[in-house]
Design a protein that fits this description.
Elements lengths: L2 E5 L4 E8 L2 E9 L1 H5 L6 H23 L8 E7 L3 H18 L3 E5 H7 L3 E2 L2 E2 L7 E6 L4 E8 L2 E7 L5 H11 L6 H9 L24 H13 L7 H30 L3 E5 L6 H14 L2 E4 L2 H4 L3 H14 L22
Parallel strand pairs: 1-4, 4-5, 8-11, 11-12
Antiparallel strand pairs: 1-2, 2-3, 6-7, 8-9, 9-10
Length: 343
């Protein structure tokens, strides 16, 4: 019987239906255009959009999956981390559905679900070829390296100490007068720029730990613009600047990921999260893995950003192994640490 999952941790509302590792439906409603006017996610507006979109998306997902609500085996939902009120919308809806259907409710950690999104190919979760890996999760709010020792067993190696990579992209774009979200815009402009035009720092790239810090890079861009205020007004100069900043971020992400994989003696690297849609990151990480003799699994674009399919897939794997105790008493956990997830 299928599992229905709900994801409302930030500014994407998503409902998915999964059965036996097959994604029957993965409906997503993005709020990007709504928040672009404000240069970032406005929590109150995000919450209202979740309230508006959740029920229609659930109906659409069930229709696409050709599944009736009575056939649902269990309900899964993102418990955290995320925006408190946004999480609350999804959790209360999931609790109400599970209670009405008398089905178990499975509360899932958003980042733990990202660890397994690279194993979804098209509409099938491919765990037959699973192997220990170093997983890079990189998004607007988080950047971390995780060692996944075995399926459903992980160890957090390092995380961002301040600004995440996606946050650095967006804040840099704002300094350049580019629209929100800035990451895709910088990616597009950087494609025609010279990545070696300007030498920006690669924060913590040579540090002995696996942590990340991108606030210094953002500050370096600000100081650079104070000295070169008219450079962004030149199309060629803007492209070079975007390419140089993007390369600094990507080289940091790739360098620390490959180093962790070699140190931990694993043969596989995975990457997920919204920033994994960045074309240079995908290209450079693939090239670095090939040079190092590592297998690479990148989350497909539909599963890079927040989505309920990865929530459902993880819930199904946990239920099958008896690793969760379904309960209607779960509460949101906005600051839930990946280290605190029982494995």
């Amino acid at each position: 019987m299928p599992i229905l999952a709900i994801e409302t941790s930030c500014d994407e509302t998503s409902v998915a239906v999964v059965r036996s590792g097959c994604v029957l439906a993965n409906a997503v409603s993005s709020q990007t255009k709504l928040h672009a006017e404000y240069g970032g996610v406005v929590p109150e507006l995000a919450t209202r959009e979740h309230l508006r979109n959740l029920l229609p998306l659930a109906r659409a997902a069930l229709a696409e999956a050709n599944v009736s609500v009575g056939e649902i085996r269990a309900v899964a939902v993102t418990r955290g981390p995320g925006l408190p009120n946004a999480l609350l919308v999804g959790l209360k809806a999931a609790q109400a559905l599970a209670f009405a259907l008398r089905r178990p409710l499975v509360a899932i950690h958003h980042h733990e679900a990202h660890l397994y999104s690279p194993w979804i190919r098209g509409r099938t979760a491919d765990f037959e070829n699973f192997q220990p890996n170093i997983s890079l999760i990189v998004s607007g709010g988080h950047t971390m390296l995780v060692k996944v020792e075995a399926e459903l067993h992980h160890l957090l190696l390092g995380a961002t100490l301040d600004d995440a990579a996606g946050e650095c992209f967006d804040k840099t774009a704002k300094l350049l007068g580019l629209p929100y979200p800035g990451g895709p815009v910088i990616d597009r402009l950087a494609a025609d720029g010279n990545p070696r035009a300007h030498d920006f720092p690669r924060p913590l790239l040579d540090a002995a730990n696996d942590d990340f810090s991108f606030s210094g890079l953002k500050t370096a861009v600000r100081y650079f613009l104070q000295k070169n205020p008219v450079l962004p007004d030149d199309a060629h100069g803007l492209r070079d600047l975007c390419a140089s900043v993007q390369t600094a971020i990507v080289e940091t992400l790739v360098g620390k990921t490959i180093r962790a994989a070699k140190r931990e003696k694993v043969q596989c690297v995975t990457a997920s999260g919204g920033v994994t849609c960045n074309r240079q990151l995908r290209r450079d990480l693939a090239a670095a893995c090939e040079r190092a003799g590592l297998t690479l699994r990148l989350a497909e674009p539909d599963y890079c950003t927040d989505n309920a399919a990865m929530i459902a897939v993880l819930a199904e794997r946990k239920l099958a192994r008896g690793l969760v105790e379904p309960s209607l008493d779960a509460d949101i956990s906005p600051g839930w640490s990946l280290e605190a997830v029982a494995v």
